[in-house]
Write a structure and sequence with these properties.
462 residues; mainly alpha; single chain
Length: 462
C-alpha cells in the first residue's frame, strides 16, 4: 500500500511540474531564446575584449593613476546619465501601439521626437561636464590635468546618440547586430591601449584611447540603427516635420522624463559610487572597487541586454491583451538569468584570483573579495531586470521610479555607513541591499497586476 501511495504521489507531482512547465511556454519562446543567445554571446565576447583593455590600463598606470582615470570616467558618466533621456524606452512603447495603424510618416515623426531628445541631451551633457569641472574644480581640489581629462572624454559624450538607433534595432528584431556592433570599437580600444602601454603615454594617452573607442562605438550603433529604420520602411527622422510633436504624441515626453529620473537614480548606484569610494578611501581604493565592478559587469550587462529582447515582446503582449503570454515570457527570462548569474559566480570563485593575477596584476588582488560580493548583488539585479521591463510595459514607469527612489535612498544610507568603516566592500554591501529590495518589490507589483488582468479577462470571456 505504501508503494502504491508513493507511486500515486509521484505521478501527481510529475503532473504538477508538467503543468507548471507548460505554463511557462508561450509562442515565440524559441525566437526569444535565440535572440537572447545572440546577445549573451556578443555580450560575453564584448566584455572579455573590454576586460583586456581595462587590464592593460590598470597594469600600465598602477592603482593610483588608474584610480584617477576611474574617477574621471565616472564623473563624466554621472553627468551624462543624469541629463540623458533613455528615449528607446518610450519609443518602443509608443511604436508598438502605432505600428499596426500608423503611416511610415507618423512613425518617422515619432523617431524624430526621440532624436531631438537624444541630440539635445548629448550636447548638454558634454557642455555641463566641462563647465562644472571648470567652475567648481578648485573646491574639490581638481588640478588642470583632471579638467583636461574631463574635457577629452566629453568628446565621446557629444556623439553618444543611441536612443533612436537602439529602439530601431530592438523593434526590428536585429539583436544579433545589436550584440556585435560594439565589438569592433572595443577591439580598437585594445589596439589603442596596447599602443599607449608600449609607448608609455600615461594617463592622457589612455584617456584619449577610451574616448576614441567610445565615440567610434556610438557612431557604429548610430549607422546600423538608421539602416534598420530604412529596412522597416521608415523615412529618415532628420527629414521629418518637427512642428507639433508634443501635440501629436501626448505622454511621450512625460514617459521619457520618468525613465530619465529612474536612470538618474541608477547612476547613483552604478557610477557615483566609485566617486564616493575614491573620495572616502582614496584613488587606489576606487581603482580596485571599479575593477571588481568592471569584471562583474560581464554578468550585469546580461540583464540590460536581455531586457532589450524582453521589453518589445512583453510590450506587444500587454498591448494585445495576451496576459498569460506576458507572464510566461517574463518568468522564462528570470529563470534563464538565475542560471547565468549562478554560473558567473561559480566561475569567479574558481578562476577569479588567476584572472586578476594574469590581467591587472598582483597589486589588484583585493579585487577578488570585492568581485564575489559584487556578483551577489548582480544576481539580484539580473532577476529584477525582466520585472522592470514588465512594469514599464504596463505603463507603470512612475511606480518603477518610486521604488527605485526608495531603493536608492537605502543604498545611499548603507554606503554612507559602511564605506567609511569597511572600505570598498561597503559599497558592495549597499548594492546587495538595493538588489534584494528591487527584486522583491518589482516581482510583487508586476505579478499582482498581471494576475489581476488575467482574472478580469477571464471574467469578461465567461
Amino acid at each position: 500500500m505504501a508503494t502504491a501511495f508513493g507511486n500515486a504521489l509521484g505521478a501527481q507531482a510529475r503532473a504538477v511540474l508538467r503543468s507548471r512547465a507548460g505554463g511557462l511556454h508561450v509562442k515565440g519562446t524559441r525566437t526569444r531564446l535565440t535572440a537572447i543567445g545572440h546577445l549573451l554571446s556578443g555580450n560575453f565576447l564584448n566584455a572579455l575584449i573590454m576586460l583586456v583593455s581595462v587590464a592593460m590600463a590598470a597594469r600600465s598606470l598602477g592603482p593610483a593613476s588608474y584610480g584617477i582615470m576611474v574617477m574621471v570616467l565616472s564623473y563624466n558618466r554621472v553627468v551624462e546619465r543624469i541629463l540623458r533621456f533613455e528615449s528607446w524606452q518610450p519609443l518602443i512603447r509608443f511604436a508598438v501601439q502605432e505600428e499596426k495603424e500608423s503611416s511610415p510618416e507618423r512613425l518617422q515623426r515619432l523617431y524624430a521626437y526621440g532624436l531631438l531628445l537624444d541630440m539635445g541631451a548629448a550636447a548638454l551633457s558634454a557642455v555641463v561636464a566641462v563647465s562644472l569641472a571648470l567652475l567648481f574644480g578648485g573646491i574639490f581640489h581638481l588640478t588642470s590635468l583632471h579638467v583636461e581629462l574631463v574635457a577629452i572624454y566629453s568628446c565621446a559624450t557629444l556623439v553618444n546618440i543611441a536612443g533612436v538607433p537602439t529602439a530601431a534595432l530592438r523593434l526590428s528584431g536585429q539583436f544579433k547586430m545589436l550584440a556585435y556592433t560594439q565589438v569592433a570599437a572595443n577591439l580598437l580600444r585594445i589596439v589603442f591601449a596596447g599602443y599607449c602601454a608600449l609607448g608609455g603615454y600615461g594617463l592622457i594617452g589612455f584617456m584619449v584611447a577610451w574616448t576614441a573607442a567610445q565615440a567610434l562605438g556610438s557612431l557604429i550603433v548610430f549607422w546600423v540603427g538608421f539602416r534598420a529604420l530604412r529596412q522597416m520602411g521608415i523615412p529618415n527622422p532628420f527629414r521629418a516635420r518637427m512642428r507639433g510633436l508634443t501635440r501629436d504624441f501626448p505622454g511621450f515626453f512625460g514617459f521619457a522624463c520618468s525613465t530619465n529620473l529612474s536612470l538618474t537614480l541608477r547612476v547613483i548606484t552604478t557610477e557615483a559610487d566609485s566617486l564616493f569610494v575614491g573620495a572616502v578611501a582614496g584613488a587606489p581604493a576606487a581603482a580596485v572597487y571599479y575593477l571588481a565592478k568592471r569584471i562583474a559587469k560581464v554578468a550585469a550587462q546580461v540583464g540590460a541586454q536581455v531586457q532589450a529582447v524582453v521589453y518589445p515582446d512583453v510590450a506587444r503582449m500587454w498591448a494585445n491583451g495576451d496576459f498569460r503570454g506576458f507572464r510566461a515570457a517574463t518568468l522564462q527570462v528570470q529563470i534563464a538569468l538565475a542560471a547565468v548569474g549562478a554560473s558567473m559566480l561559480l566561475a569567479a570563485y574558481l578562476f577569479g584570483p588567476l584572472l586578476i593575477r594574469v590581467g591587472p596584476g598582483e597589486a589588484y588582488q583585493p579585487t577578488y573579495v570585492l568581485l564575489l560580493t559584487q556578483l551577489m548583488a548582480v544576481i539580484l539585479t539580473l532577476h529584477a531586470a525582466p520585472s522592470r521591463s514588465a512594469l514599464l510595459a504596463m505603463n507603470r514607469s512612475w511606480l518603477v521610479l518610486a521604488l527605485s527612489a526608495i531603493g536608492t535612498a537605502m543604498f545611499v544610507g548603507v554606503a554612507g555607513y559602511a564605506v567609511p568603516r569597511y572600505g570598498p566592500i561597503g559599497g558592495n554591501i549597499a548594492h546587495i541591499v538595493l538588489g534584494a529590495f528591487t527584486a522583491i518589490l518589482f516581482d510583487i507589483f508586476w505579478m499582482r497586476r498581471a494576475k489581476q488582468r488575467e482574472t478580469e479577462m477571464a471574467s469578461v470571456r465567461s
